[in-house]
Amino acid sequence: MAGSEAAWQAAQMGVSVVLHEMRPQVGTFAHQTGDFGEMVCSNSFRSDDDEQNAVGLLHWEMRAANGLIMEMADKHRLPAGGALAVDRDAFSQSITERLRSHPNITTKEGEVAALPEDGNWIFATGPLTSATLGQAIGKVTGAESLAFFDAIAPIIYFDSIDMSRAWMQSRYDKGETQEERTAYLNCPMDKEQYEAFIDALLTADKTEFHEGETATYFDGCLPIEVMAERGRETLRFGPMKPVGLTNAHQPDVKPYAVVQLRRDNALGTLYNIVGFQTKMKYGAQTEVLRMIPGLENASFARLGGIHRNTFLNSPTLLDSQMRLRSHPHIRFAGQITGVEGYVESAAMGLLAGRLAAAELLGQPLQDPPQDSAMGALIYHISGGAEAKTFQPMNVNFGLFRPVDGLKGGRKGRKDRYKAYTDRAKSAWTDWLSETNLDAG
């Protein structure tokens, strides 16, 4: 997504772009196609609330900058309560069509295996940088690339779910329409069922790592069995929390835990299990997940899996314009820079594309304002984070500078978040208007 957005932004500003894609000639564990913007983990861009949520604010900033990813996400949106979820196949196909048909973009299939010595480049290799390129990056940066493991959630065919046990409801009935308020499919568990499920998770066969590899997970994408290992109640306070839901079949019985599924395509034939990334082996997955009430006869369109994710120690390697300090003709964007999530990755692509194009056109841009969501992320990865403990980061209000005079703590949170988003929108709008190179 970062590479797609970077190419789009630069091309819209009048720069000729060659967009390299190694797939399908060189595949990955998680990708199924050669399309741009393929979603491999979830089909959700998370909250779309641009007043009270940092991710929703990032959506707003990308839309204001005429971002391709947000345009296509809005075009292929699915009901998901207050979240922005998309039909993943239609989404990536439409991105591919737009990029391939752009007069300023030439697409080229094949792996780029080294960092070029000249030219102007953006490397946006996503969560699955090839081993060859990863080694080349490590050699040029003079530092070992860090790695963690991303886990993929299973997808289930809707018609195999027992709706006499499950029901449709968004948590706290969130959403403006009935479709939004019933966007999630819920499977309840009593205490005995939950305890048996945890026992099965803890003893299930799991994917083993290769010799010399270590598993350092990003907390926002922990496999369910890793969460279970942290404590038997962890899942009940995470993806299986039973709050804000009433069992339509037994309204007087409060579930002990709830598994939620979210629609994964426009037809409503596929549902993914929310927060259920897993590294269980395939046989164990089907056995354990069919212990969930309503999923006893579940048919799986895709089982979960695990893959390696490489990222840079960006605070030591990248400047505030996303350039490699030692080789400033090279920029990095997306998840390899140490941001985490579809939205954050695409946002870094948007910035890299704009910054690179402006520099090539002889009208370099000022750094993005730190009070914007994008600026807060750039500041964090290019020096604001502690390099010794640097880990992938989602956008969040903890990255924003405080607003003077506002109350701290939970009680003041609503006013504080609104102040953050108002300030960010103003700063971002001013930054966009300061240049005549506005893409689109």
Automatic annotation (TrEMBL):
Superkingdom is Bacteria
Q: In what residue span(s) does the MnmG N-terminal domain sit?
A: 2-363
Q: Which UniProt keywords apply?
A: Cytoplasm, FAD, Flavoprotein, Methyltransferase, NAD, NADP, Transferase, tRNA processing
Q: Which cofactor does it need?
A: FAD
What is this enzyme's catalytic activity, as reactions? Answer: uridine(54) in tRNA + (6R)-5,10-methylene-5,6,7,8-tetrahydrofolate + NADH + H(+) = 5-methyluridine(54) in tRNA + (6S)-5,6,7,8-tetrahydrofolate + NAD(+); uridine(54) in tRNA + (6R)-5,10-methylene-5,6,7,8-tetrahydrofolate + NADPH + H(+) = 5-methyluridine(54) in tRNA + (6S)-5,6,7,8-tetrahydrofolate + NADP(+)
Per UniProt, subcellular location reads as: Cytoplasm
Any Gene Ontology biological process? tRNA wobble uridine modification
Chief subcellular location equals cytoplasm
In Swiss-Prot or TrEMBL terms, this protein is called Methylenetetrahydrofolate--tRNA-(uracil-5-)-methyltransferase TrmFO
Q: Which organism is it from?
A: Roseovarius albus
